[in-house]
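Operator note (shift B, R.M.): manual run for DNA-binding NarL/FixJ family response regulator requested after the automated queue skipped it. Running by hand, logging everything below so the morning shift can see what happened. Input copied straight from the record, untouched. If output looks odd, do not overwrite the archive copy; leave it for review.
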Amino acid sequence: MSDLTILLVDDHPVVRAGYRKLIELQPGYRVTGEADSTAAAYLAYRREPADIVVVDLSMPGSSGLEAIRRIRAVDRKARILVFTMHEGLSYALKAFEAGAAGYVTKSSPPEALIAAIATIAAGGKAVSDDIAHEIAVERLSGRKSPLEALGPREVEILQLIASGMTTDEIADALSLSQKTIQNYHSGIKAKLNARTDANLVWVAIDAGLLEMRAAGGGPA
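Run finished. Output pasted below as returned.
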């Protein structure tokens, strides 16, 4: 079985060195590249695509969100984990909207990073325990589910949008025209009073349409 390859993206060399040491202590995990900016990350991925990209949000120039978007633009199957100091669900939602598969805060224990990498490598989505707690609090708030305003097809399309699929991909998956998907997309936003796709991602997470695995172990 071949090693799991990982690209590290962080503007601090000392931080990258620490991540590399931690990751390469795991059997079968190998760091194959490092980058200190969005542009460098994009070039490194184009040169040698890694199985997992671990990226910080705060970097000089453009942010980690732009790195996610640029890498996903050339490879829709790219699996990207955000590892950042930014705590709070709003940051995580923006990352998932951009196409990330996981979000772990740097205040988390080291094993949370390793657990998230493993989950994403297996095709899942992962969040650190602090973000999972925020999701759980929102779900237990007793509010009426916004999904009650949507029909079955709209719920299905919402789930696909929130998972990061493009209009073209959703149209192909459902054997519908791009125009039909665009109309559904607009209608879903209107019914949910959502101004952006980040709002739709939150609705999907809040309603349990996306399974988020807490990096500490169980589902969020």
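Quick read of the result: The chain has two domains: 4-138, 146-206. Strands lie at 4-9, 29-35, 52-55, 80-84, 102-105, 126-127, 213-214.
Leaving this for review. - R.M.
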